[in-house]
Amino acid sequence: MPSFSHQINSKLPSATTSIFAKMSGLANKENALNLSQGFPNFPVSETLISLVTKAMNDGFNQYAPMPGIIELREAIAQKGLNLYGVNYNPETEITITAGATQAIYTIISAFIQKDDEVIIFAPAYDCYDPAVKLCGGKTIEIELKAPKFEVDWNNVKIRINDKTKMIIINTPHNPSGTVLSEKDMKTLEKLVKDTNIIVLSDEVYEHIIFDNIKHQSAALFSSLAERTFIVASFGKTFHATGWKMGYCLAPAELMVEFRKTHQFNVFSVNHPIQKALTTYIKTPSNYLQLPDFYQAKRDFFLDAIKGSRFSIIPSKGTYFQLLGYKNISDDSDIDFAVRLTKENKIASIPISVFYNNKIDKKVLRFCFSKNEDTLLKAAEILNKI
């Protein structure tokens, strides 16, 4: 085929294949234990699988309604009422999405225009910044304060100006595993009051939170909720990341704009899985047991590597654990992650990739949403380094 002869003016000139694909690819090539990309290696609930199969056999295989089937939206509304005491109208304030990343992209593209500024907190999940740039906006990256990755709200206040259109928060936080407190949320609520700033609250790990910490959803703070999109993930919650199923919540006037973009982006999402989830989330134990389930995995993993040379601050949420290696090597985190994959046969994610300016704190992210055999094998490797 002849090559394209015209000049391409890339909208993302510095973008390359994501670090997640690179490290998973390298892990496969090297036959290494893959604790890099965030996916479980244990099965999805047989009950949920059976519900999806039943929905397919019952004929729910054509387009679902654009915002999602009403039964699922009603079940989500009831879930929100049970958890947070907040009423979201299933007709106008809840939309089912093709995963959280699609929801995030759609929110950003529906509202961000040329030269708008969006505040993000670094290390930040890697889909935020490219989406803002594709819309002609600019990310204002505020570094979280190490070692506990806390928000400097005075710095946020200083960076807010007339161009600030959106603030993106993520709690529990990927990659650090930290959790925003009630004080954090009230401070944010106060900062955005009487402004036109929209808040995007990425809460995909809302049910994966440890040590009896309460998830401080934006829904709990009334004047914050009135300007906020909350993004959630069924894939993260129910160990089915490959299904790419999520949803978002927002006041009706914001959701109107979201759906204008959503209908031309994906229009609607997997119909039989929506039918299955409608039934599955009506049993609260299917998600309320997750904190204990994942804390047991975190504690098992950390206990197994307590004799290693890595420095550890236990994760407070998500299924990721950061490990510092300053006592082990002077390599850059990217070089060290590659070396561990090739030489030690264990794959992780270097944290510098979550910063626009690639800050290297000599820290790697490991995923512990694995069975105990996998975590034991990982620990044996890490303890020998």
Structural description of this entry:
It is built from 15 helices and 13 strands. The model has no long low-confidence stretch (mean pLDDT 96). With 385 residues, the chain is an alpha/beta fold. Helix content is 39%, strand content 15%. It folds into two domains: 19-38 and 288-383, Aspartate Aminotransferase, domain 1, CATH 3.90.1150; 46-283, 3-Layer(aba) Sandwich (Aspartate Aminotransferase, domain 2). The strands form three sheets. It has a seven-stranded mixed β-sheet with strand order 2-8-7-6-5-3-4, with helices on both faces.
Q: Which features would summarize this protein structure in a list?
A:
globular, Aspartate Aminotransferase, domain 2, alpha/beta, 15% strand, 385 residues, seven-stranded mixed sheet, four-stranded antiparallel sheet, 13 strands, 15 helices, Aspartate Aminotransferase, domain 1
CATH overall fold name of the largest domain: Aspartate Aminotransferase, domain 2
User: Helicity level, as a percent range?
Assistant: 25-40%
CATH H-level superfamily title of the largest domain: Type I PLP-dependent aspartate aminotransferase-like (Major domain)
- Rg computed from alpha carbons, rounded to a whole number of angstroms: 21 Å
Q: What share of residues are in beta strands?
A: 5-15%
Number of spatially distinct domains:
2
Major sheet summary line: 7 strands, mixed
Please give the count of helices: 15
Form type: globular
Mean pLDDT: 96
Query: What would CATH call the architecture of the largest domain?
Result: 3-Layer(aba) Sandwich
H/E element string? HEHHEHEHEHEHEHEHEHHHHEEHEEEH
Strand order of the largest sheet: 2-8-7-6-5-3-4
SS elements, strand count: 13
Question: Which runs of at least 5 residues are low in confidence (pLDDT < 50)?
Answer: none
Q: Give the C-level CATH assignment of the largest domain.
A: Alpha Beta
